[in-house]
Amino acid sequence: MSMTDVDPRIRTAAQRLHAQLSARGVDRGVVAAMVRVPRHEFVPADVQASAYEDVPLPIGLEQTISQPSLVGKMTEALRLNRMCRVLEIGTGCGYQTAILAELASQVYSVELEETLSIDARVRLRRLGYRNVEACVGDGYQGWPERAPFDAIIVTASAPHVPPPLVAQLKPGGRMVIPVGHVLDGQELLLIEKDASGRTRTGHVIPVRFVPLRRGGEPDE
Ligand code: SAH
């Protein structure tokens, strides 16, 4: 991926954002991956000018692309390497997917909304990502046909940790997931499965995500 042929104003804003992420201590490998992903290509034209501000942006259908510093923190928590198979729940516009694809071996991404999934697939292909497989489905169920995974990232908030996702995590694997209700506050959890299959849960930071919907309805 190259940012050399983009509008110089976009390039300057991108450089500023990436310097901010480094200054905040986001892992160097993760920042290097974020530098290679042109965030302005993932957002609607009317918000492209804000693509390199550290803010969430609307991507249509009342969904949002997370702010870059949060994308960085969540990605860092997964401790990815070139051997990892990663499951993402909530493809959205595919921005987080692209960053995972820069760092892992293979990315599997599940999205409930067919139009978002198709647009993301077209965009990722155009940008040259070949190690991404996407499908339309209810991410609460994970992707059993492609399991197990070294890492799982959920980008919509669930009322509880979906048991199918825990089951699809390899021993030694990591999952990041926002859990809680919009009004009571949500917490980003890091769940680690040890070699014997036991899980340990840590709290990362308070967050605010759109809800994970099951069968098209908010899940209570
Ligand atoms: N990672 C995305 C963030 C999208 S917001 C990005 O970078 O753009 C959360 C996404 O989760 C939305 O696209 C929403 O449609 C999707 N979603 C909500 N409930 C879901 C479910 N049960 N299964 C899969 N995707 C879901």
Structural account:
With 220 residues, this protein is α/β, with parallel strands linked by helices. The chain has a domain at 60-207: Vaccinia Virus protein VP39 (Rossmann fold). 28% of the residues lie in helices and 29% in strands. It has six helices and eleven strands. The protein has helices at 8-23, 28-36, 68-77, 95-103, 114-126, 163-167, and strands at 57-60, 63-65, 85-89, 106-111, 132-136, 149-154, 169-181, 185-193, 199-207, 213-214, 217-218. A seven-stranded mixed sheet has the order 5-4-3-6-7-8-9. A hairpin with a 3-residue loop joins strand 7 (169-181) and strand 8. The longest helix has 16 residues, at 8-23. The protein is globular and about 50 Å long. The mean pLDDT is 93. S-adenosyl-L-homocysteine (SAH) is lined by residues 59, 63-66, 89-90, 92-93, 95-96, 110-113, 116, 138-140, 155-156, 210, 212-214.
Features:
Rossmann fold, 7-stranded mixed sheet, binds S-adenosyl-L-homocysteine, two-stranded antiparallel sheet, 220 residues
Give the amount of beta strand, in percent: 25-35%
Q: By helix and strand content, what is the structural category? A: alpha/beta
Q: Work out the helix count.
A: 6
Segments where pLDDT lies below 50 for 5+ residues? none
